[in-house]
Amino acid sequence: MNKINVLQDIITTKDGRKFTKLVGGFGEGCPILTDKQVGELLGYKKGARMVREQLDRNRDKFEENVDFIDLIQRVSDSDTLNKLGYSPQSIKQAKNVYIFSQAGFLKYLKIATSEESFKRYEDFIEDYFKTKVELKVVENTLREELEKLENDKVFIYGKAVLCKNETDSIDLLRKLEDINSRITEITATLSKEDLEARYNELVTNYNKLVDDEDCFDIGEFSKVLDIKGFGRNKLYEYLRDTEVFMRDKNVPYSKYSNYFKMVFSGRYKGVATYKPLLKGKGIPFLLKRLRRDGILEDIDTKKIKEIENNLRNMKKEKAN
């Protein structure tokens, strides 16, 4: 198990509660949450004990060392647990002390909260697990590599100058060229734009962890409809014009939010971006509106089911 570190970063929830960011355990720089933090976040009266009971009842849904680690089994001294905020008495009484990875925490939220409750924690999840820590890890890793390359460059150059064998000297100079090429590449990557692009790659798995089994891409929905001249962009335009979505962005108004799910899609120029997915119950809602507005011909239950099945099949093919 990797060493657990307490960072200086403090994440504040919407209601003003503060949580210190922890990393390690599952891998260097991996953000983690303790069962104590999870209990506090969810407002459990029994705190960490309630989290442990929930996890123990649902162990078949979690994978040990991937979703959670039991620190009682893995940590031989109490110093680490004290550092994480556990009192000597609570350590002595506990059969288990769990830490969660991002995947494990999301799985826990799914069994412990409703979909409406889950939405309350989306900003916290983004801030705690993604926005700052992973960018920092990417940047620090690159800077460490750059420092090593600069040291190697000086050493190899000096060796090449002193080398009396012409063949060996040429080989050393070729290595020097490779090092210079990598230094140039890293220097470019460390620019803000490239770091954000790298960060966006890191968050592509985020939405896979969030349970969107019954949610569908709106572009795929327009393909299944197969209405001539009414593709993805036209569908978005229609949703804005009919005031299902806000006029200046593809975000549903609150009275229609039950039919859509906004998911985090990355960052652009330092700003978090989101995209709407169509929920399963949003399919008949949209089809009826399209029928009402004369865009779609008569629609029945059988046709709705056929569209749902086509969307699920497209989703499975895309996943594979």
Describe the structure.
This protein is α+β, with helices and mostly antiparallel strands. The protein has three domains: 2-115, Mlu1-box Binding Protein, DNA-binding Domain; 135-201; 212-319, no CATH class. The chain is built from 16 helices and eight strands. The chain has helices spanning 35-42, 48-57, 71-74, 79-83, 88-93, 102-112, 115-119, 122-131, 133-162, 166-189, 192-202, 206-209, 218-225, 232-241, 282-292, 301-319; strands spanning 2-12, 18-25, 31-34, 68-70, 98-100, 215-217, 260-268, 271-279. The strands form two sheets. It has a five-stranded antiparallel beta sheet. A three-stranded antiparallel beta sheet has the order 6-8-7. The longest helix has 30 residues, at 133-162. It starts with a strand and ends with a helix. 18% of the residues are buried. Mean pLDDT is 79; it is low at 202-212.
Give the N-to-C terminal Cα separation: 32 Å
Mean pLDDT: 79
Q: What spatial order of strands do you see in the largest sheet?
A: 1-2-3-5-4
CATH topology of the largest domain: Mlu1-box Binding Protein, DNA-binding Domain
Q: Main β-sheet, in a few words?
A: 5 strands, antiparallel
- The count of β-strands is 8
How much helix is in the residues? Answer: 55-70%
Rg value: 26 Å
Question: Which SSEs are present, and which pair or pack?
Answer:
Blueprint: E1 2-12, E2 18-25, E3 31-34, H1 35-42, H2 48-57, E4 68-70, H3 71-74, H4 79-83, H5 88-93, E5 98-100, H6 102-112, H7 115-119, H8 122-131, H9 133-162, H10 166-189, H11 192-202, H12 206-209, E6 215-217, H13 218-225, H14 232-241, E7 260-268, E8 271-279, H15 282-292, H16 301-319
Antiparallel strand pairs: 1-2, 2-3, 3-5, 4-5, 6-8, 7-8
Helix pairs in contact: 1-2, 9-10, 9-11, 13-14, 13-16
